[in-house]
Amino acid sequence: MKIAIVGTGYVGLVTGVCFAEMGVNVTCVDIDKNKIAKLLAGEIPIYEPGLEEMVLKNVAAERLHFTTDLVECVNNVDVIFSAVGTPADEDGSADLKYVLDVARTIGKNMTQYTLVVTKSTVPVGTAPKVRAVIAEELKNRGLDIEFDVASNPEFLKEGSAIKDFMSPDRVVVGVESERAKETMTRLYRSFLLNNFRVLFMDIPSAEMTKYAANAMLATRISFMNDIANLCEIVGADVNMVRRGIGSDSRIGTKFLYPGCGYGGSCFPKDVKALIKTADTFGYDMQVLKAVESVNEKQKSVLFEKLLKYFNGDLNSKTIAIWGLSFKPETDDMREAPALVIIDLLLKSNCKLNVYDPIAMDECKRIIGNSVSYCANMYEATLDADALLLLTEWKEFRMPSWGVIKKSMNQAVLFDGRNIYEHEEMIENGIKYYSIGR
């Protein structure tokens, strides 16, 4: 089978590489000539464990190709996946410009039956718009060519995306015809030989499933952050509470970890988009509006703790920051709590020493040289008045506390991910503040 993936961002590149790994002939298309040139040269534009090796392997096997010319691909493939960006507009709604541009190009150039699959996260009701654009272009050409539109939302977790794609817990596919269903079944069967976990449904339900899943996970995080903040006030330990409720099989343990807020490319954008979709239809998503509000406040919780510790005066303080990406195993800083905290600290006239195993270049691209970039986590703590942990990278789990205590002006740690134990910090002579304990 031959397919095209339009868009070589996070979703598009991972999708294309994983299909190629299973023997599909894949052409990845992007209008960014520089990005395609780098991919052709073996340079990977994003960080994801295992991705670079898989790209090089499948390019060498001639199953994975890169081009800027979608027109050339349209009639040489069986399926076209649209994985282009859907950035949030100022009002929170998803911008469908690029999705509809892809549809327009397909409609202008297709000469045979084509299955067009939306992989991007798009609001409910996008499929009819894609279908209308393709149909309009065919009408303008005086042609009546059969085509299908389908929805196949992604559920990839950054840091484990390849594993998620190669061994999915489910694949959601929205279709309108048996022909589209048969094609998608053939495409995914090799991934799911032992347990075919493709959930076929109507397209609106598939589009909604993606938003509902991310909104639920975001809700669990904000709920636990709210509980954590209350725990501090009443003297409870949120870790004990988390274990207590997580042992209930109806609740489970996942996404019940409090911290300094969620970020990334999915949760913030998708929560906003779902709220906007509801507003458009005259419905008020009260729970999700609260989820968003709690998360925005949570991003400044560590700053407020730090400000309180120094009696409201952070002027000329040197602050060390461990972790910049919104989560471990990625260099993605979109909506990262680190950006909020860095901005608040710089406005308070602090000097910042930052370190992240992967996201340093991304941070420099976003905020420039307003902070000092350190070679390792110990350099970041040199002469620091306080240390903030914002991302729970594994290398931060067991540092040499003796070295850190000696290198800091004041041995005080603000743990935004609750990865350390209070007793251990006391034993090492370090003042310790966490979330909800």
Structure, described:
With 437 residues, this protein is α/β, with parallel strands linked by helices. It folds into three domains: 2-201, NAD(P)-binding Rossmann-like Domain (Rossmann fold, 3-Layer(aba) Sandwich), CATH 3.40.50.720; 211-297, NAD(P)-binding Rossmann-like Domain (Rossmann fold, 3-Layer(aba) Sandwich); 299-433, Rossmann fold (3-Layer(aba) Sandwich), CATH 3.40.50. Helix content is 44%, strand content 14%. The protein is built from 18 helices and 14 strands. It has helices at 10-21, 33-40, 51-60, 70-74, 97-109, 126-140, 161-166, 178-188, 203-234, 238-246, 267-280, 286-298, 301-309, 337-347, 360-367, 377-381, 401-407, 422-427, and strands spanning 2-6, 25-29, 64-67, 79-82, 114-118, 147-151, 171-174, 198-201, 318-322, 351-355, 372-373, 386-389, 412-415, 431-433. It has a six-stranded parallel beta sheet, with helices on both faces. A six-stranded parallel beta sheet has the order 11-10-9-12-13-14. Helix 5 packs parallel to helix 6, helix 9 crosses helix 11 and helix 9 packs across helix 12. The relative contact order is 0.09.
